[in-house]
Amino acid sequence: MKVPYWPPEELAATVLKTGALFECIDEMPLSVRSANCLKNADIDYVGQLVQKTDQELLRVPNFNRLSLEEVIEALTGLGLPLEMDLSVWPGPTKREPDAQVYAHAR
């Protein structure tokens, strides 16, 4: 089985330029309300957000048109649209704490 290359050619420039897909929602210029709605829907990273459609976001409890406009504006600032096909996106990775960092901190 061939493992897909990440990022696909058509996204490579955007991903390398911004690195935004791996940013936390908390780092976006969103209101507390919008950010909380997204987090409650288990959308924690920009890469998860850009895969959603307008309609999917509007079905999130307490997420309204104003929140949608806010998200679209923030994504536009990053050069990213909604409804991106990131089917081969590896997703966010959580780094394990570096044991050496803790050893030097003592």
TrEMBL record:
GO terms for molecular function: DNA binding; DNA-directed RNA polymerase activity. InterPro entries: RNAP_asu_C. Residues 22-76 form the RNA polymerase alpha subunit C-terminal domain. GO terms for biological process: DNA-templated transcription. SUPFAM superfamilies: C-terminal domain of RNA polymerase alpha subunit. Gene3D superfamilies: 5' to 3' exonuclease, C-terminal subdomain. It comes from the Bacteria. Pfam families: RNA_pol_A_CTD. This is RNA polymerase alpha subunit C-terminal domain-containing protein. It comes from Bradyrhizobium diazoefficiens.
